[in-house]
Design a protein that fits this description.
Layout: H1 8-17, H2 30-40, E1 44-48, E2 51-56, E3 62-67, H3 81-86, E4 101-105, E5 138-143, E6 146-156, E7 162-174, H4 176-183, E8 192-204, E9 218-225, E10 232-236, H5 242-245, E11 262-265, E12 268-272, E13 279-283, E14 291-296, E15 301-307, E16 333-337, E17 352-357, E18 368-379, H6 382-393, H7 397-402
Antiparallel strand pairs: 1-2, 2-3, 4-9, 5-6, 6-7, 7-8, 8-18, 9-17, 10-12, 10-14, 11-12, 13-16, 14-15, 15-18, 16-17
Amino acid sequence: MGKPEILWPIGWLLIATGCGMMHEETAKTFGEDAAFLRRHSDAVVLEEGDAMVAVVPRWQGRVMTSTAGGEDGPSYGWIHRDLIRSGEVRRHINAYGGEDRFWLGPEGGQFSIFFKKGDPFDLEHWQTPPLIDTEPFDVKERTPNSIALRKKAAITNYSGTTFDLEIERAVVLHGRAAAASLLGGDLPEPVKAVAYESRNTVRNVGNAGWTREGGLLSIWILAMLNHSPATTVVLPFVAGPEAELGPIVNDAYFGEVPDDRLRISGGVVFFRADGEYRSKIGIGPRRALPVLGSYDPSQRHLTIVQYDKPEGATEYVNSMWEIQEEPFAGDVVNSYNDGPPAPGQKPLGPFYELETSSPALALAPGDSYTHAHRTIHLEGPEEDLDAICRRALGVAIADVKAAFE
């Protein structure tokens, strides 16, 4: 990847927060967040016992938040209440929040879908496509624990290539037995769990194939999650020589991440997600494993994200804000830690993000690709969570806690 533009994230945050002047309320229960979303949107709640998920079709069927503890349980997704309450539709982006939202890439470069052909790669010309920002998805089907949505659209990239596509997105809330199966073992009774997945399909409904020469799209799922001062992101990776597999981690997005916020040990990248320092990292296709997660010891809250990573796929779109030498050398998984965009300014949340992407989609007419992104939140005694963390992420909770002590 080339050197990123350092200034644009600051401007993005200033736009999203209304020039940095905002005030977010204290943490809410899931029931309070669900009631707020119902007042201001077409939110629906999926339920499986105490496991609950709030989905908003109006905002591309994004999962706004979830809980393992019923109406009175903690709400895991970050929600931009001030923006939602205002009813305002802003230029550039409307950052409503949500812990599983559907996007498309790439963001920057000659195949960008966020810049018009010939425009400079700067903040003034950057625009999130309405398709993944403000346009609603149509509800196809609804059950107590699932919702299926559809959207037909056309989108044109910076190079002038138009993609005629159909998007199908389903959100499915799993039961406890399915959650245990996804984690590869039993769920001890004291552990509370909510497990759901989004299944995101893009189909080429045009008459021409999508090619590398004209640019390719990718499916990009992003989670905005409530942070704590002690939250640590855990990204296992494939060990091996850099000459064959590339760098272990890309921390060039917003400038090099300090050592006290980024550690590599025993085949795992640890990244501090405390909401106090704006930073972002990524792992490329030869290093990334199909799982990542985070742990908050203050709440004994373990999050596991699993996603579909096809074997042998090496081309992922590059989102840097520049004409790129390698437009298909992007990252597969990313994590972002929010923080003040500049001294004396307020952060957007704060929150932290766990992100996954599909490969670049070279689809012939009529062909489709599905990217599944699974989220599992667990709360309970640390000894029980430790066994799950070891199985899922290959690391002990004691090592996660010690990463930044």
